[in-house]
Amino acid sequence: MDETEATRGPQCDGAVTLAFSILGKRWNGMILDALGADAASFVRLRRAVTGISDAVLSDRLAELTDAGLVVRDVDPGPPIAVSYTLTDAGRQIVPVLRQLGRWAEENLVVQHASG
Question: Which residues pair with residue 85 across a beta bridge?
Fold first, then answer.
């Protein structure tokens, strides 16, 4: 190890940084998990991700689409129907999210507000 490496300290892996630039945003992991089972409409996603507003869900779906994890499909109808599905890359993250959920159940203490 040279002096520069020693003074710089530990560095986060660039790929981890990239992954958490998407997955670290509030709601994104939950949206991907909700889409893990099947395609879903906007309304179905809003119901599955409790507490998210329509505006934030719309923004997050656009971000996940831009990141190549979600596809927006429009059926011209009538009536017009929009659904969201995971891409291959999106499907690959679902087992990781489920494993993370199991880890959280086993290792994180959930604090409930008293009163």
Answer: 71
The CA-based dihedral angle spanning residues 55, 52, 18, 87, taken in that order and rounded to the nearest 10 degrees:
-80
Write the CA distances from 36 to 13, 55, 79, 100, integer angstroms: 27, 22, 26, 14
- 67: number of Cβ within 10 Å: 16
What is the value of pTM for the model shown?
0.80
- Tell me what pLDDT residue 95 has: 95
Share of the chain above pLDDT 70, in %: 88
Q: What stretches of 35-87 show up as alpha helix (H) in DSSP?
A: 42-48, 54-66
Residue whose C-alpha is closest to residue 48's, from 37, 109, 66, 73: 37
Q: How many angstroms separate the Cα of 11 from the Cα of each of 7, 14, 15, 23?
A: 11, 9, 12, 19
User: Do 63 and 45 touch, CB atoms closer than 8 A?
Assistant: no
Q: Does pLDDT of 115 surpass 60?
A: no
Structural domains of the chain, ranges and CATH numbers in brackets: 14-102 (1.10.10.10)
